[in-house]
């Protein structure tokens, strides 16, 4: 499977949910101008929500908002708007984003923590600075977004939060730093769902498997195509996932239909979390020493 035979066109997109599902609701989607975040933003807006997308590049968010609004024109009363420049590694930026949304739109009913970043590298070669940068973005940034949404609005008004993690049930050789951060997000979510339930706040995770997006795989350069070929052989579904499949899961968790669901991890991975992630080659001569006796036929 290559990027050439995967249809990622938003022009064929259509939500499975009713048009007024989120009418009058206000949402923030971090990283909502591209990839999975863009599909989530598009779907929420098509269902009536005012969706504020945020990243460091306001111009790109504004352009993405124009594209999405053109696609959903006439489908409902929702819209996508660009928020202020936000680096989720900066506490002040996050505080300003949430304050801006609450002040301008009068609410913050839904939060989707989609922003994140990582790079492919063997663990022994990751610098402390590189490890810290991924932890700050994927774990600390997600926590700060949740905290500010809760403190500035949801504590008194309720709300729903979905954190996007990553398929790491069996670890992620080659991206250990990201797997560690995302596992932290999942455990944080389990803690917050109990702490905040009295405020009528639900918080869940969606754990995508390997999802194809043009923007995502371009970031990895030639390694992206190699990644696809390696992963496709090991996935039970024998294909990568689409951003729309992740968006559908997020939409359900944000909806009233999931009103009894909190602290959950919803996997969207085609069964991929139950198999290994063969990003690192294991040489034939590699083995662990044996304690006791082992028949020759037991060796691979």
From TrEMBL:
It holds the Pfam family adh_short_C2. It catalyses: a (2E)-enoyl-CoA + NADPH + H(+) = a 2,3-saturated acyl-CoA + NADP(+); (2E)-decenoyl-CoA + NADPH + H(+) = decanoyl-CoA + NADP(+); (2E)-hexenoyl-CoA + NADPH + H(+) = hexanoyl-CoA + NADP(+); (2E)-tetradecenoyl-CoA + NADPH + H(+) = tetradecanoyl-CoA + NADP(+). One of its GO terms (molecular function) is trans-2-enoyl-CoA reductase (NADPH) activity. It is an enzyme of class 1 (oxidoreductase). Its EC number is 1.3.1.38. Pathway: Lipid metabolism. GO terms for biological process: fatty acid biosynthetic process; phytol metabolic process. Keywords: Fatty acid biosynthesis, Fatty acid metabolism, Lipid biosynthesis, Lipid metabolism, NADP, Oxidoreductase, Peroxisome, Phosphoprotein. GO terms for cellular component: peroxisome. It is found in: Peroxisome. Interacts with PEX5, probably required to target it into peroxisomes. Participates in chain elongation of fatty acids. Catalyzes the reduction of trans-2-enoyl-CoAs of varying chain lengths from 6:1 to 16:1, having maximum activity with 10:1 CoA. Has no 2,4-dienoyl-CoA reductase activity. This is Peroxisomal trans-2-enoyl-CoA reductase.
């Amino acid at each position: 499977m290559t990027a050439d035979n995967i249809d990622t066109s938003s022009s064929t997109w259509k939500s499975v949910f009713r048009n007024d599902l989120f009418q009058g609701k206000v949402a923030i989607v971090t990283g909502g101008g591209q990839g999975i975040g863009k599909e989530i933003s598009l779907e929420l807006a098509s269902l009536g929500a005012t969706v504020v997308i945020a990243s460091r590049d306001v111009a790109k968010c504004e352009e993405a908002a124009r594209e999405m609004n053109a696609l959903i024109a006439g489908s409902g009363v929702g819209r996508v708007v660009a928020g202020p420049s936000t680096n989720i590694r900066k506490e002040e930026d996050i505080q300003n984003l949430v304050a801006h949304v609450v002040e301008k739109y009068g609410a913050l009913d839904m939060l989707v923590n989609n922003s994140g970043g990582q790079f492919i590298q063997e663990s022994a070669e990751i610098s402390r600075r590189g490890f810290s940068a991924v932890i700050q973005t994927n774990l600390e940034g997600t926590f700060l977004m949740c905290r500010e949404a809760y403190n500035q609005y949801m504590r008194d008004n309720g709300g729903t939060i979905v954190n996007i993690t990553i398929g790491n049930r069996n670890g992620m050789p080659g991206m250990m730093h990201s797997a560690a951060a995302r596992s932290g997000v999942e455990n944080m979510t389990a803690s917050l769902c109990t702490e905040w339930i009295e405020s009528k706040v639900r918080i869940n995770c969606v754990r995508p498997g390997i999802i194809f997006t043009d923007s995502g795989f371009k970031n990895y350069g030639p390694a992206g195509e190699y990644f696809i070929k390696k992963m496709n052989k090991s996935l039970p579904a024998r294909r990568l996932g689409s951003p729309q499949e992740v968006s559908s899961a997020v939409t359900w968790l944000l909806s009233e239909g999931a009103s009894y669901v909190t602290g959950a991890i919803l996997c969207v991975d085609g069964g991929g979390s139950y198999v290994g992630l063969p990003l690192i080659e294991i040489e034939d001569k590699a083995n662990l020493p044996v304690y006791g006796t082992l028949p020759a036929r037991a060796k691979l």
